[in-house]
Design brief:
three-stranded antiparallel β-sheet, 4% strand
Length: 259
């Protein structure tokens, strides 16, 4: 069994009392989940006063949690502005998914060759737990906790390739989790993703390395296509709203005559 990704260390953490560190751990986890689930929107400004009230902690543990989230690149500090939730452009996100498709496909291939029978059974047990999620059963979303509770993380660990692990389970991992969940909300996507996971496990269990890679690449390619469709719909809706706005240059001539 692999261990979950440890929280990023902070040089200031040693200055906090054990109980403060415990609070910082809790707040760190709660804020991270709020970011991943989109409760704290990409690009939104983080107010320390509001967060301290929301999570019921003092500024010390809160600031430690925020520093750790900055270390994971989930938050960014802008001079004279403050701390904001990261926001990736469409181009950046698509490029990340292109890289994921290649690297996680290779990870699945290697996992089929290197995972023990016990690890494969652990993967199957993990998906059995995922299947119990109310959100997934209702087709609303597919949420995975980080580390050992994450199907993709376990596959990468099972590849036994340290370079892939460093590349996929570091900073990139946390950014990907942020968008993986939020785009899983698309209708039909949660069940499709879960079904893909089941088929990938079947290929790994049968030691079919080629099929495991093909299925993982298709799975991530499908997720990328879902993101592209989402952005097209968003762009179309914004363009329609702009076209209908009376304040644009394309306003109805009758409205111009009435000015």
């Amino acid at each position: 069994m692999t261990t979950a990704i440890p929280a990023s260390a902070s040089s200031s953490g040693a200055d906090l009392a054990p109980e403060a560190l415990t609070l910082a751990d809790r707040v760190f986890s709660e804020i991270q989940n709020a970011i991943v689930k989109g409760e704290l929107k990409p690009g939104s400004k983080m107010s320390e006063a509001e967060l301290a009230a929301r999570y019921g902690v003092s500024r010390g543990p809160l600031r430690e949690a925020l520093r750790r989230l900055e270390g994971r690149k989930l938050l960014t500090r802008i001079p004279h502005v403050g701390v904001r939730v990261i926001s990736l452009s469409f181009e950046e996100l698509i490029q990340i998914y292109q890289v994921r498709e290649a690297m996680e496909g290779m990870a699945a291939r290697l996992a089929a060759l290197n995972m023990s029978a016990e690890e494969v059974q652990g993967l199957k047990a993990l998906l059995a737990d995922h299947e119990k999620q109310a959100e997934l059963q209702e087709g609303r979303a597919y949420f995975q906790e980080e580390g050992d509770f994450d199907f993709h993380y376990r596959i990468v660990q099972g590849s036994r390739n340290e370079v892939l692990t460093q590349m996929l389970c570091g900073e990139l991992y946390h950014r990907v989790r942020l968008y993986r969940y939020q785009f899983s909300v698309t209708e039909g996507r949660p069940q499709k993703a879960f079904s893909d996971h089941l088929r990938i496990i079947e290929a790994i269990e049968s030691r079919d390395a080629e099929m495991a890679e093909i299925l993982m690449r298709r799975h991530i390619s499908s997720a990328r296509a879902n993101i592209e469709a989402h952005f097209r719909e968003l762009s179309d809706s914004q363009g329609l709203a702009s076209a209908r706005s009376p304040d644009t240059e394309q306003a109805d001539p009758a409205s111009k005559r009435s000015k």
